[in-house]
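dude i think i finally got it to work??
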Amino acid sequence: MIDTFNAIIENHTLFVISCSMLGLVIGSFLNVVIYRLPIMLEREWQREINSATENELSNSDSEPTFNLVTPNSRCSQCETPIKAWQNIPVISYLLLAGKCHNCNTAISLRYPFVELITGLLSAAVAWHFYPDAGTALACLVLTWALIALTGIDYDTYLLPDNITLPLVWLGLMVNYFGLITSLESALWGAVIGYLSLWSVFWLFKLITGKDGMGYGDFKLLAALGAWLGWQMLPVIIILSSLVGAFIGISLIVLGNREKTKPIPFGPYLAIAGWIALMWGSELNALYLSYAGIT
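look at this
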């Protein structure tokens, strides 16, 4: 086992392919996380409400188990359990022609898309950070978390603490070993990342009386600061604004989103954070040069 692992690490192409294949499998799991985690949180909140109000009508003990593992995946239309061969990332979707094997209900294109994008981004991370396997594996975890957060926030306008807060601590732990930046830079990245959006939130609320963003955005930027360091925060904020403007306008022009419907900021932060992870140093140098600072 160890010899196989060493052989994979020592070969650049094999390492990239292996990470890509792993990414496809993780992508399949991320589909489960994106769909189930918000439901799990909603049920937990409902149980807390029932407990606080002593509501006897809803007995959580009688509810069937529902988590990231149980129950097994099944068709949302006919409830037929999905067999192992029907759950192979991307390939099963093609073999099934995008339809349920039992009732022929169309399967959302999102499922193979998430699997494919996870595989491709995993390959890109492996290629970029090779031969530093430790840094590459850490950055794979960050990439997978950002994909999950993007999907959840787009669907529900939530950035769950279950992901963002562990991501902050994991970033600090990773940089304790100096894998991406120094621990000092990571610490201040988390602090400044949180406080910067927190300040914008309260300034906007004082002026307009409305909430401009959610607290999850603060925590996500804090997590990105913990991973990439405070130096990357200006690049992330600028990139997220540009990405948000481009995607938002594109969705409105294409008619895929109403002009009055709010667009979550989390996906744009996640995309900007991943770009900064890959090419942040180059973009930072370009920005400072353009600004005449260097």
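The radius of gyration is 21 Å.
im so relieved honestly
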